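User: Predict the complex.
Assistant: Input components as received:
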Amino acid sequence: MASIAGRKCKVYWSTDGGSTYQQILGIDTIAADTQAAPINDDEFGDEWEQFISGILSNPIKLSGGFRPADSTGQAAIRAALVSGAFQNFKVLYDGTTYGFTQQVVVTKYSTNTQTKDRTTVAIELQSNGAPSFLP
Amino acid sequence: MSATASWATQVGIVAALRAASAVTSLLAQGSDAGQSSIVDEVIEGQLYPYIVVGEGSEEEELTFGQGGHVVRPEIFIYTQDGSSTSATTGAAGYKQGLAIADAVATVIEGDGLTVSGHDVTMVLQEPWTKERLDDPANVRVVMPKFEIHLEDQS
């Protein structure tokens, strides 16, 4: 299978526990860092550090153009930041099949405006539990 | 999702300029109060001053699931005034062309531009130039340039 062009990606938001998802508009960048916190396991006699895999997480960063009228996407995410509610995020890198869903809390929603550029938004999501990788 | 937006943008610019009496009143009047002095191809016998729309460039500006474009049209304003009125204050030189350019920029940077199938999200002025032509005599060309950001309508 060939690599996937970034232009095919779509991102979605769910406010009903992942039953239905609505596309988040205006987003042009996603970074999902599925990672394990390394736990040091050194002992006397080791010449090189020893690590074991620790607890897993999947923080997500989104950014793009600010769309305040996107009531089921960007505006819903901002509302979730204020309420602190657990909600669900989905990405499909090829627009149809490959990606993951993840329960998240919203930890950051920032906007940036300059006179000679569009108004942009940057969103940070912290995972709660394991992602479901698709397919 | 549209593949390109240059033609729709050109049509939108011509329509917006022709609808603006502040622009057309400064152009050769002809039989339609200056509207036919805004063209994308000059035909023989075109009277001064007139505007040519058509040159420029385009590139994609995508978001996930939605197409977008940055179109950079170049607009050429041709004037010819052989009067002997002193330069910088009279009709000779660039004064006429710069007045037309000001009216054009007011329309395109204002809310007057509509591009079919797209939302106009931002219009910026690009660095633009002016130059004199010796043939035909006394012709001045003012070339305002713009950067138009468009999002595809769903």
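Chain A touches chain B through 17 residues (CB under 8 Å).
Let me know if you want any component modeled separately.
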